[in-house]
Amino acid sequence: MIKIVKGSGGYIVADLTDEEVRRASLAGELFIGALGRIDDARIISYHCNNCSRDFNNAPRVVRKSVNELVAEGHVLIEQGEYICKECNAIIAIYKVFGEGISRRYDEDISIRDIVGSRVLYKQESIGIVSDVLVNVKSCSIALLVDHNGNYTNIPWESVEGIGNGVVLLKGKLCARCKYESMPIAEFCMECGNRLS
Prior knowledge:
With 196 residues, the protein is mainly beta. It has helices spanning 18-24, 32-35, 111-114; strands at residues 2-7, 10-15, 25-26, 29-30, 43-48, 53-55, 60-71, 74-83, 90-98, 118-121, 124-135, 140-147, 150-155, 159-163, 166-169, 172-173, 180-181. Helix content is 8%, strand content 51%. The strands form 5 sheets. The chain has a 6-stranded mixed sheet. Strands 1-2-5-6 form a 4-stranded antiparallel sheet, with no helix packed on it. A 3-stranded antiparallel sheet has the order 7-8-9.
């Protein structure tokens, strides 16, 4: 369902699920801060209070995986900002809390711990790890990820964290415009530049 979701510096118009509407609802209105990150493809438009204009696309989202214990049993997993593409004003700030993902780079990880894990990028499901590949010639490691029957290799360098049956990925940063695209993208989602 198409809904207006408010932020402190404007609002977005997005296609939300019933669960997202429930999560974003505070005092009879919907708020981005309580909702978290929405996929760009589901954002129809946004309004920037600073520009006093409506835009027919998604604002830019800058996000950071935090994975920080803020209170007993409460982990700040991710925080981010929806930013106007025209003036760079902040439309809204959001935070995602949960159980957290351990980076676990200081200990050994078994392939059995990784295979079958859900692969996420900015709360969006990329697929399920079906295997871990080792290129003997280059000594590189990649995850073979099944996304609805389509398989893709994700380089190990794209892994941001592992734990609780989840593998978190970093996006690909465009050398030209510095926009962060999905880790499986071949071209920048902002400027169209080929990603390495």
